[in-house]
Hints:
Blueprint: H1 2-16, H2 26-44, H3 48-80, H4 82-96, H5 99-114, H6 118-126, H7 138-173, H8 180-198, H9 210-219, H10 221-241, H11 245-258, H12 267-278, E1 282-283, E2 286-288, E3 291-293, E4 297-298, H13 308-338
Antiparallel strand pairs: 1-4, 2-3
Amino acid sequence: MIYLLAFLCGFILDFFIRDFEKIPHLVRFIGSSVSIFEKLFRKVFKSDIGLLFSGLLIVCFNIFIWGGLAYLINSFVYRINILAGFVIESFLFFQIFAKASLKFESMKVYYAIKSDDIEKSRKELSMIVGRDTDRLDYEHIIKAVIETVAENMSDGVVAPWFYATLGIITAVFNNRFTWLILVLPIVYKTINTMDSMIGYKDEKYFYIGKAAARLDDIVNFLPARFSAFILLFVIFIISIIKNNSIIFTRSLKSFVKYRYIHSSPNAGQTESIIAGFLDTKLLGDAFYFGKLVKKRSIGYGNTKVKADDIIAVNNIMYFAYIVLLIINLIIGGIICFIL
């Protein structure tokens, strides 16, 4: 199945290659359309109810536009030229996933910390987090990077993988639904991008971003929990290799106790496991747009994080990536056997 091959090609490319700034990117296009609709509707709607309605319109219009574009690519480009369809779809899958780019950006913070440049560390961190970074010390910078990598395992890797794989499985039973293989992850990416842009709880975005935030919670519900399962499996393997069962036990206990501490029903699923793995506390109070937001900590350990923990967490995410690839190869083998 050429659609499965395109998916695997894009997925594997993201394992080795990060996104390049000068190449047009799907997420930037989605972000631009979100901004355009937001500016337009803010001129029309002024009341709280109006902003709530406009947020719903932003969600619907963007899903229709980008989901529809994915459908057109899958349905018509392949009919014109199979090779062109394969290349375009592979490239889009490559851009949908974000592991290599996240590692690249997180390692920029790591190198800044290693060079003992606090200002550069804060600046590099500000590129990948939404919180204020201008007053963070090294420990909290490291924790912020770790939290971001852990959370984005679900948002940037597992969730789009989950929906593409769901599309593959659906297409196996009915080949009329092959378009779901590309449409589902792009629709997910659209929702996730909207949430990251307008899904805040501050005064400016509380109403206009509510629909995007709620929908993002819904579409991430299953992927976040599957991410936790994959992460626990990887840590279990690591504990066997290191002959240290405490690593896994600690991670599991932290997951059971702290997975719902986060204000998001999904973000804490993976962060709680990493907190246990590192035997430390993550999250806690943070400043957003100059205002202090009180948050409970995730984890019960008191180990002080160090810069090398950023490398350790990235390596765990890469091991998880390999597990997902193996699952897809197994599914591909089953499909070949059936067909």
